[in-house]
Design a protein that fits this description.
Strand content: 35-45%
CATH topology: OB fold (Dihydrolipoamide Acetyltransferase, E2P)
Distance between the termini: 45 Å
Order of helices and strands: HEEHEEEEHHE
Oligomer: single chain
CATH class: Mainly Beta
CATH architecture: Beta Barrel
């Protein structure tokens, strides 16, 4: 009888946490930010062009989210390019089901070189095949973003 009670408590807790994940698939993550003043993420490359780093708030569609823990996401910036978004000090993550949703992010955008090792790690997090991971042979110049606050709508 005692083991049935423990099993029921475990089942309740697992269902409760599953429901919490669904409830939290939209909303604020990290620092509370407002929607006001956000520019299209597609304008970001031109804003970073003259100064290698810019503090900004942008709005766009989430293209992909780390399926291991939600510790990064990508956003479409146009011309078949994506910007990788990480979260300040790994202080928060976003829901793994945020792809396709609108996001407003505030933080620092910059151009940087991403190493081969990091590119392979990111490909692994994204669930890429071993063949795709092994095909990464060169570092990549990319626009990146470190967000201190995110709104997923």
């Amino acid at each position: 009888m005692k083991s049935i009670g423990i099993a029921l408590v475990c089942l309740y807790m697992s269902l409760s946490s599953y429901g919490q994940e669904i409830l939290n698939s939209t909303g604020h993550f990290g620092e509370k930010i407002s929607k006001k003043g956000a520019v299209s993420v597609k304008k970001l490359p031109e804003k970073v062009e003259n100064s290698n780093t810019v503090e900004i708030k942008v709005k766009g569609i989430v293209a992909e989210v780390c399926q291991v823990s939600g510790c990064w996401m990508t956003m479409d910036i146009g011309d078949d390019e994506r910007m990788r978004v990480k979260f300040k000090d790994y202080g928060f993550f976003v829901p793994k089901d945020a792809a396709g949703k609108t996001a407003i992010i505030r933080g620092i955008a910059k151009k940087e070189t991403i190493s081969i090792d990091e590119l392979k790690h990111l490909a692994e997090d994204a669930g890429k095949s071993e063949k795709e991971i092994n095909s990464i042979k060169e570092p990549e110049e990319a626009l990146t973003f470190v967000a201190d606050g995110v709104i997923i709508k």
